[in-house]
Amino acid sequence: MDIGSFQGRLEALRVGAISDIGAAADLDALADVETRILGRKGELKSVMGGIGALPAEDRPKVGALANPVREAIESAIETRREVLGTAALEMRLLAEREDVTLPGRSLWRGGLHPIRETEREIARIFGQFGFVVVESPEVETDALNFEALNIPADHPARDLWDTIYVQPPTGTPEAPPDEEPRWLLRTHTSPGQIRAMRATEPPIRILTPGRCYRYEAVDASHGFEFFQVEGLMVDEDTSMGTLRGLLDAFAHAMFGAGRPTRFRPGYYPFTEPSVAFDIQCVVCDGSGCPACGRSGWMTILGAGMVHPVVLRNGGIDPERYQGFAFGMGTDRITMLRYAIRDIRAFLANDLRFLEGFPA
Amino acid sequence: MRVPLSWLREYVDVDLSPEALADRLTLLGMEVRGIERIGADWSRVVVGELLTVDRHPNSARLSLTTVRVGDGEPTLSIVCGATNIAPGQRIPVALPGSVLPGDRRIEIAKLAGVESQGMLCSGDELGLSSDADGILILPADTPIGLPMEDLVGDVVLDVDVKPNRGDALSILGLAREVSAATGAPVRWPGIVVTESGDATADHVRVDVLDTERCPRFVARYLDGVSVGPSPFAVQQRLTAAGMRPISNIVDASNYVMLELGKPIHTFDADGVPNGHIIVRGAEPGERLTTLDHVERVLDPEVLLIAGDDGPLGLAGVMGGLDSEVSDTTSRVIVESALFDPVSIRRTAFRFALRSEASLRFEKGQEHRLARIGADRAAQLILAWGGGRAATEVVDTDPVELPRARVAFRPARVARLLGVDLPSTEQAALLARVEVTTEPADPTDLVPIAAAGPTGAAQQVPAAEGALVAVIPGHRRDLVIEADIAEEVARVRGYETLPGTLPTSAMPAIRPDPRRLVDHLRGWLSGQGLLEVVTHGLIGPEDHARLGLAADDPATIRALNPVTADHSELRRSLLPGLLTVLADAERQRRPDVAVFEVGPIHARVDGQPTETPMVGVLLAGSARPATWAATPRAWDLADGKGLVEALVARIADASVDWRATTPHAGVEHPGRTAEGVVTLPDGRAVVLGRVTEVHPALLAAMDIRAPHVISVGLEIGAIAAIEPGRVQAGRVDGPPPVERDLAVVVDATRGAGDVAAIIRDAAGPSLVGLGLFDRYQGAQLGADQVSLAWRLRLDPDPSAPETATDDLMDHIATVLSERIGARRRA
What is the pTM of this model? Predict the structure, then answer.
């Protein structure tokens, strides 16, 4: 074989390869072509194997002849691969198209109870003024729930709290038969005041939120279990003016900045002076409706300056210190906040009801 | 307290509309809860005169009447069903086209075949009284044709009088409040008793044996009295105020109670042997039949009004039947007494006899009202029942008390109210509620706190500028300086106090006890769980289903439950959560994933204790069913996974699950695990339990879900695993090496045991351990299980390359030695 026919075989290979490469329909076919031509046992190798049949003086020329062929084939493969790759990707994307209007794979939404969230919102608002939550037990003594709060036994004010009593702890004497029992379920969060005062020194700013119990028939606005948040602030100059200022700030944060408020006398044995705090009716905005008894106002909490006897029972000198306490029904605040008509909804736990609150 | 404005106006001028008056009273602390207009919901009801009353031709129960309703008006023919009517009577007539309460329209209609041109009205039909049986018979001199609203129309305020203001439980007391608000003077009724003949003492003798419980007893005596109905206007007035008219004598005592706030009792003197009244504690076992025909068994706690032959009445609470004023009574003894409020309250509670009278007695009474009330009652009985009042009174304590003096410091009042208020202004405000002021003497003491069961009185010497408030007798609630402050603020108007924000020192920073709980709540709701709040009080049946005995000493029970279903403080959150599920299923909502955070209660060593818990209940599908996912039921592993993820969020720790004794009938005997976290210091913290609820318990609650997962964790345990201080982990070293290890063990062997052995054998270089496959089947023996673990190991850069392989071999060897585990290829 002479160099001329060797060159001819190379050229034939090149032409055939370029044709095959162009004909490869997909990347797999192209890879087959590549292996068949450029592989270890490929056609190029086979042609190159003919080198031994060449005259010795022609052999050095082989490289100059073969390399451009190899490069041309490799380049054609690369070009073809790019074309086929792009086409394949386009095919894939086309194949993967889906109905983008389909709904998602759902998760359960979860949610938080409106009473607890309102409790937290109240704590958040007063927290900005330095009030911090302290916990207080649900099973209380008559001494803390009533006596220490200036509500002695047989006081007419006891009518304000119909009480559920429990057996006393083992080992403590039971009340004599004609007296009210001494252990009870707290009828309000107010005993938390006494506990907090006894546990710390002024300045005091605390909240005691939680569940309370009363012996009460259940209807749309009453339950024998309900929730309250108690607030207490004591130092040397906390006045009724401070109480008004803070309650206004609270009402505006909870019910909107423009909502008018009203401060009027109330009565609690543990405060003197005592206060009832109203906001303009959230249903009728003051024009009068059944929800506000046509008065245009809704009472949202009771408050007052802590009675000197209560301060003293908390271990605080009423001559030096003064302060206020307030107690609000978390249920009521929540009902006003979300226009809930029936207090029974809170403990009924209808899932449709609970899912109605964003949180 | 119901206050007819027509009555109120007798004692004070009111130039305000009812709404404006209600507002003023409310702002003064006398909250008006409602305004009722008598006559506002009728129209075209007039006074008529019955001309004839005949049998209805077609009905034995009906009458046919003719009625005159005014000059020039045609005579009306009206069918009526009442039996108390007779010609000549004046009665209310609803004319054709009239409207009655409840939007009831009266037109010409045929009744039993006869045309009726209107309707004769009962008191009930007009909302005037509860008497629905008979037609309301009006006084004979009532002008014919007069619109009924002109005769009896009124506006009634419903005033919420607070327990400390017994003095305002009266029309006169509220007139005083109106006066404080408007400045209009109060007019007392002219109280004059026309006496004649012999003296009261000739007929009545009073011996008070217990002056502690009865500090004053005033008696009057009248004879020749005719018992009958009181005047129509009086009856209307009492009805409007909420009391049923009974007879002129009883009405007189009720009138005085409403007018002055002084309860009065009247006796038929014939029922009081020898006219001798004894006030004493009852003998043990003594009996009395009260006005309500109930025989009461008494004891010394009960204060009695007694006669020579035994009890006549329960002092201040209810009279006895035998001395009741009746139609035949002609001699009357009037009792106007003062009683110990506590004694009255106890007796009224004990016999469940709380009345308008006892309510006033238990709030305390002004001393002078005893005499005033006796006189006023005698005056009204004479006016309405005739007869004669004996001269003078029998009075056990005729000396009236001096007015109380309360020293106060105007500067301290101003400090409490937070407003700069000069003492002259304070004095002027107090004068509007009949409190006069004078300069304090240096020897005067300012009462800071009154003596009471919880401590002695606290007083300080009156400082420079102090005043003394001289208190009118009716204001028994003004005792300490703070009471004076309230009075000043009240009269000035709370609305005038400027609001300020705190400027005083802030308390020290304190931890928020709700931080962890709120974190848990947020996290759990983020996992798709819905927060619920269930009852703290549950029923004995709920506890019985948990296997707790009805007399379990650890259960805290209500002594006076509102209902048996809510009579015991919950020992577990599970009953409440299961109730949520049962209710949801009833609403065809079988997919329930809920949680609750709250305390459970128990007696521990006799003491009530509260343990804050978080409870989770999972029932139905673990994911909502959609086109993209096949629903899968929640299972035990979901509950565990929730706890594991929660723990991982809170601490750098993992949960070990171990078998625990299931609660029989509550927890699935084969699907109950206890979760334990081992802290870096080696302490093991039991977090709580994950269980499948026992099918028997589900059946008992009519729950249809076949598998329900419950998780109960103690908040305190979760708090215990929170790290005190967090240090960032190392992430700059080489990545961990992952190796798999499959071992075959006895099927009864817990995976938790195997994991514990792997951790023990691997030592500190093991940073992660997961079970990625569990296989039981044909390739293994029937009692075998293959567990495939993936270990993440922190390589020691200085160790030889073969160290990891050596460690894996070591772990396999230890597993083989300890539990006979065979390594699978």
Answer: 0.89
